[in-house]
Write a structure and sequence with these properties.
Low-confidence stretches: none
Radius of gyration: 13 Å
Mean pLDDT: 87
Helix content: under 10%
Number of strands: 9
Order of helices and strands: EEEEEEEEE
Largest sheet: 7 strands, mixed
Oligomer: single chain
Strand order of the largest sheet: 2-3-6-5-4-1-7
Length: 116
């Protein structure tokens, strides 16, 4: 069974707008297209660089669409992380993490439970 990965997206000026606008995360094309399928990426975590720093929620990814200047990642269900997550390695580009790093397991697509 292939591990499920999570796309972590930091809020920086390199992204077209603030990371999260309702149910879409915008990624500037200059940063490259996230490899959702190749990395079995089903979830996304917006990482805030302003107070409070870190992430507190994980979202199910419904789809990714290409737009003129950016990629739009459309989000579904969201789940509150058991604790604020502050382990991002780089704050200028998106990165991939294992779902288990967020203390979750997937019950079925778009539905998580904690793995504490």
């Amino acid at each position: 069974m292939q591990k499920i990965s999570v796309l972590v997206v930091p809020e920086t000026k390199e992204f077209t707008e603030d990371v999260s606008h309702h149910d879409v995360v915008w990624i500037n094309k200059s940063l490259g297209k996230p490899n959702l399928e190749g990395r079995n990426t089903k979830y996304l975590v917006p990482y805030w660089l302003k107070d409070p720093v870190g992430a507190n929620r994980i979202y199910h990814i419904l789809e990714i669409k290409e737009h003129k200047e950016c990629y739009g990642i459309y989000l579904g269900n969201s789940f509150l992380l058991p604790e604020r997550w502050e382990s991002i390695a780089q704050k200028r580009r998106f990165e991939y993490w294992d779902l288990a790093d967020f203390k979750f397991v997937e019950i079925c697509p778009g539905l998580l439970t904690t793995n504490l």
